[in-house]
Amino acid sequence: MRRPPAPLRVLSGIQPTGRFHWGNYFGAIRQYIDLQTAGEAYYFIADLHALTTIREPTRLRSLVLDAALDLLALGLDPERATLFVQSDVPEVTELTWLLMTVCPMGLLERCHAYKDKKTRGLPADAGLFTYPVLMAADILAYDATVVPVGEDQVQHIEVCRDLAGTFNHLYGDVFTLPKPRLVEGGAKVPGTDGQKMSKSYENTIDVFEDPGPQKKKIMRITTDSRPMEEPKDPEGDPLYQLFSLVAPQADRDAMAATYRRGGFGYGEVKKALVEASAAFFAAARERRAELAADPRRVAEILAAGAERARLQAGRVLGRARAACGLERGAAAPRRRP
Ligand code: ATP
Ligand code: MG
Fold first, then answer.
1. d(Cα 217, Cα 223) in Å, to the nearest integer?
2. C-beta 168 within 6 A of ligand 1
3. What secondary structure letter does DSSP report for 268?
4. Has this prediction a pTM greater than 0.85?
5. What are the pLDDT digits (tens) for 73-91?
6. What does each C-alpha distance from 106 to 123, 124, 162, 249 come to in angstroms?
7. 63 CA distance to ligand 2 centroid (A)?
8. For the segment 303-326, what is each residue's pLDDT rounded down to a tens digit?
9. Helix, strand, coil fractions of the chain, as percent rounded to 5
């Protein structure tokens, strides 16, 4: 008998390893949040994953709270989507172990986060090595059908499908196999030095950075030194690319025409960028300030999210435990379509 198609359930984890910058927002978070209207959506702040890079408890705590505030301010709607903190759902770590027992070493040895560190001769811990298994448990625990990811995470979804498939093959139909969905508009956001914007390159413009320091950063963006009179191609210019992200269409067109005409200074473009950025994020900033002033509300949202997430993860873990023989006397319940 054919199963009816599974309902669309979107899941996305966001690492709280630093304050969100424009690359994170325009390259990923914005698209994740948009998917909350596409079906049932689960979003978690991946504090367990962050532990492999952040070893300062106070910093981790504040980054997790900042991530929650940022996501809510940027439009994540807790009435529509389930927002929770990864470590509030211990079912997932138990599930990680069950998956670990069916995971060949070679599969993880091929994963690039670990491989990259190894080739660079850097020490890697077992947390980084087994990271894709925790990620698989994150996805499988909620019967997610769609996982929006950047190019760099597609491999981890394949690992997840591999592990789920092996487990299902051994023990019956326990897990729902998810599909990756490449986020669109994945064009690389340039940083203040013209390279890809990235925390590691220290070239970020953070979404909720205070206006003063943000303005300073923008005014220092690297530009080329061609004479002012020379007409320029806007598309290849990082400053124009940043402007395009935050300016309304009419202003973008006008700015592109200015570039093509020549005879302008980059200082003017930077000033326009400062203004466009302030306008673009004004409403989100206001929402963030309101939420930050009401920590109880945020705690309630995260607690309610964790409760919903645990209910779902508990069901899946129950199926997995029973299927592999950890529940005495219980016949393995099968996955419901
Ligand atoms: P790190 O320097 O530690 O790699 P990062 O600043 O590059 O950090 P990540 O945590 O690697 O940020 O990325 C989180 C998400 O944001 C990913 O989905 C990634 O594809 C996206 N992202 C990060 N930087 C950019 C960028 N410059 N342009 C587009 N998307 C980006
Ligand atoms: Mg990166």
1. 13
2. no
3. H
4. yes
5. 999 999 999 999 999 999 9
6. 18, 16, 12, 49
7. 17
8. 999 999 999 999 999 999 999 999
9. 55, 10, 35
Decide: helix, strand or coil at residue 171. helix
What single letter denotes the amino acid at residue 246?
A: V
Catalytic status, residue 199: yes
The whole-number pLDDT of residue 2 equals: 45
Rounded Cα gap, residues 188 and 73, in angstroms: 23
Q: Tell me how far the alpha carbon of residue 132 lies from the centroid of ligand 1, in angstroms.
A: 17
Question: Would you say the CB of residue 50 lies under 6 angstroms from ligand 1?
Answer: no
Q: From CA 333, how far away is CA 319, in angstroms rounded?
A: 6
The pair of three-digit structure tokens given for residue 38, joined into one six-digit string: 């596409």
Q: What is the pLDDT of residue 1?
A: 38
Coil, strand, or helix at residue 13?
strand
Ligand number with the minimum distance to the CA of 23:
1
Tell me, yes or no, if 115 is annotated catalytic.
no
CA gap 8, 286 in Å, rounded:
32
- Who wins on pLDDT, 235 or 95? 95
Least Cα distance to 205 among 326, 336, 26 occurs for 26
Average pLDDT value for the chain: 93
Q: What pLDDT does residue 295 have? A: 94
- DSSP assigned state of 236: T
